[in-house]
Structure to design on (682 residues):
């Protein structure tokens, strides 16, 4: 479903991604770990279509189509969802209004009729339950005054609403307390249906106890330098990154 | 036809004044003409007018006495009413009240009569003085405006909608709406004024409205300016507030080539409250200038100002807000905020807040910010599948929302949101 080949990307003439390869099949969960500044969020941003990043080489094929020339909204409509590492606050737009617009835009792109208020509320209630988002949160402005954990939960709520085919979670676990971590993980697991795939970016093996990945990759200096199964995460937790850095430098 | 400058001098030479012979002119009108001839138009050198280019206004040959009420039918004006509003509509064409196009069944709490009536003379021109050049012009040329008189102890349940048209389809027309609202003690009323133009030619609407807000009276006045790209508008609103009264005004400016609003609020007795809100959404070749003056002349009064501009293309926004706190006006609360967003590199905003405080026990604050579009927020919206244009519209709507929110009339709010969506070029339905 997603095939990244030799992806190179710059920001402000600084090369961050330096030839990255990754293959993801339907239904798979891939965890990406790696030291700070190695390019994990950059990868997520490039997939979502953030315009500040300049792709200089390589290709990203999603559902058979190179998406690199596509606008962010078209990628989202095609089924890519990014849960942001730092979700932004947007005063003046209620979460509910925002989601209604988004859901209906995605539906429109698929040739589906927009949901009316009643249908929308029903869908929203169902998904709110999934990640235990309460009503006041949907009535408030998008992320405005939300705690760090609430913002992250709101990202997963939005993902549940939009039902993407590929969810990219950028450090959704950081800032979550133990209970919230479990809630978010349960939410993600509920969305695992054998077809939907996930890229889970994290620093902590703990999350992967809840969202069990099929593969674990280490991203370092803009490349995937090591891949393995979930045991790799345990090994990293124990030994840190030095041994991998050493392997790479040789 | 003549340019404004020529007409004024002709009038002075006793040539003609529409169909009124000059010897029939009232002393007030003659005086206004004299005053104007001495001052002339404001120039860019004038501090209060320094950002506004009036050359089109000065050089266009206008007809000042254009035929009014006969040119439009009831069905023509229907679509300009505020949908769903329980309103009494008073229609003005080229500044002239047109009873046959206006609502017939009226709420009993108020009466209307000519602004030139004996009764109206008690108030007319008491606030709007001819030493302002455009007020001088309005005083010289206005005809057919109304005094709206709200009786003491009365709450007018229906909204009074003053529906203004400038009909410049066949020639360039200068219209001089001149209205007067007197809300007596303990009365309550909500008025809406909407300005529209029917233009093939350049139009000028030079409007003056004076409000006398009695003791403990409540007046809300919401203005929608939706003229077209050939329309010039100069608009003066004066309010004088008595003890414990409330005067709230919201001005939403969407259309018009050049709009200049002047708000002058005088809090003359203790306990008065005024809210001044403004929203401008400016696009190609539009200039919108909001000048406010709140005069705190008595203790224990409050004023709140919130002005926002969304400027795209080469739009030019101007805000000049003055808070004047006199020596006796202790315990004054006066706040002012000007927030602006520029959507294009060619858009310009000049914001100038001014505080003049002569009392020592007061709470006053002002602030002005002008920013660019929030690219991060835009990306966030787009990453959820909302197209760029709609995302932009939603963000602008969010920015504008708190001004529209202040209007106490759901039908008008909905009407404005629709207009906003249109102006922002989106089909997304806004909700409050
Ligand atoms: N706007 C920018 N301008 C310049 N450099 C940038 C910019 N954004 C990111 N970078 C740099 O790109 C590199 C990769 O950043 P990125 O955010 O992708 O790292 P990360 O792997 O997500 O790190 P973390 O684990 O801390 O979240 C870093 O060195 C960062 O400083
Ligand atoms: Mg990161």
């Amino acid at each position: 479903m997603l095939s990244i080949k030799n992806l190179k990307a710059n920001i402000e003439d600084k090369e961050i991604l330096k030839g990255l390869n990754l293959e993801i099949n339907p239904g798979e969960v891939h965890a990406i770990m790696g030291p700070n500044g190695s390019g994990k969020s950059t990868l997520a941003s490039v997939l979502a279509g953030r315009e500040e990043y300049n792709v200089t080489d390589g290709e990203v094929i999603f559902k058979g189509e190179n998406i690199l020339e596509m606008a962010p909204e078209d990628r989202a409509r095609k089924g890519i969802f990014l849960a942001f590492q730092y979700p932004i606050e947007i005063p003046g737009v209620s979460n509910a209004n925002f989601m209604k617009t988004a859901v209906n835009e995605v539906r429109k792109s698929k040739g589906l009729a927009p949901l009316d208020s009643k249908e929308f509320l029903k869908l929203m209630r169902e998904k709110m339950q999934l990640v235990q988002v309460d009503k006041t949160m949907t009535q408030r402005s998008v992320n405005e005054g939300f705690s760090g954990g609430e913002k992250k939960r709101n990202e997963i709520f939005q993902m549940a609403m939009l039902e993407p085919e590929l969810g990219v979670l950028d450090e959704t676990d950081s800032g979550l307390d133990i209970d919230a971590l479990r809630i978010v993980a349960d939410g993600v697991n509920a969305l695992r249906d054998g077809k939907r795939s996930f890229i889970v970016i994290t620093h902590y093996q703990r999350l992967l106890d809840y969202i069990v990945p099929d593969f674990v990759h280490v991203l370092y200096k803009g490349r995937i330098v090591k891949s393995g199964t979930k045991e790799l995460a345990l090994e990293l937790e124990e030994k840190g990154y030095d041994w991998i850095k050493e392997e790479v430098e040789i | 036809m003549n340019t404004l400058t020529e007409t004024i001098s002709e009038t002075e030479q006793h040539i003609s004044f529409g169909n009124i012979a000059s010897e029939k002119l009232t002393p007030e009108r003659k005086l206004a003409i004299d005053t104007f001839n001495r001052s002339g138009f404001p120039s860019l050198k004038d501090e209060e007018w320094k950002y506004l280019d009036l050359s089109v206004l000065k050089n266009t040959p206008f007809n000042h006495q254009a035929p009014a009420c006969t040119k439009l039918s009831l069905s023509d004006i229907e679509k300009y009413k505020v949908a769903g509003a329980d309103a009494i509509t008073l229609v003005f064409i080229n500044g002239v009240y047109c009873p046959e196009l206006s609502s017939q069944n009226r709420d009993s709490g108020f009466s209307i009569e000519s602004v030139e009536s004996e009764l109206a003379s008690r108030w007319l021109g008491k606030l709007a003085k001819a030493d302002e050049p455009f007020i001088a012009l309005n005083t010289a040329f206005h005809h057919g405006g109304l005094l709206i008189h709200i009786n003491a102890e009365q709450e007018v349940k229906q909204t009074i909608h003053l529906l203004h048209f400038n009909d410049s389809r066949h020639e360039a027309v200068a219209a001089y709406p001149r209205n007067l609202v007197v809300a007596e003690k303990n009365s309550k009323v909500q008025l809406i004024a909407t300005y529209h133009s029917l233009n093939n030619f350049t139009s000028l609407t030079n409007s003056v409205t004076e409000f006398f807000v009695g003791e403990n009276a409540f007046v809300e006045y919401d203005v929608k300016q939706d003229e077209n790209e050939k329309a010039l508008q100069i608009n003066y609103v004066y309010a004088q507030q008595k003890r414990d009264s409330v005067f709230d005004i919201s001005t939403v400016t969407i259309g018009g080539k050049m709009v200049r609003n002047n708000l002058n609020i005088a809090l003359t007795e203790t306990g008065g409250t005024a809210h001044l809100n403004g929203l401008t959404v400016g696009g190609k070749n539009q200039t919108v200038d909001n000048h406010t003056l709140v005069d705190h002349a008595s203790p224990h009064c409050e004023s709140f100002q919130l002005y926002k501009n969304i400027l795209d293309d080469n739009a030019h926004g101007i805000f000049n807000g003055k808070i004047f706190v006199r020596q006796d006006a202790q315990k004054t609360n006066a706040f002012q905020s000007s927030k602006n967003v520029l959507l294009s590199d060619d858009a310009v905003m000049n914001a100038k807040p001014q505080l003049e405080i002569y009392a020592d026990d007061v709470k006053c604050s002002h602030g002005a910010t002008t920013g660019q579009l929030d690219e991060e927020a835009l990306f966030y919206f787009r990453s959820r599948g909302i197209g760029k244009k709609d995302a932009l519209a939603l963000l602008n709507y969010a920015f504008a929302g708190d001004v529209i929110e202040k209007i106490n009339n759901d039908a008008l709010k909905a009407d404005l949101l629709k207009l906003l969506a249109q102006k922002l070029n989106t089909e997304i339905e806004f909700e409050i």
Summary: The pocket of magnesium ion (ligand 2) is lined by residues A 40-41, 85, 170-171 (CB under 6 Å). The first strand of chain A starts at residue 2 and ends at 11. Chain A touches chain B through 31 residues (CB under 8 Å).
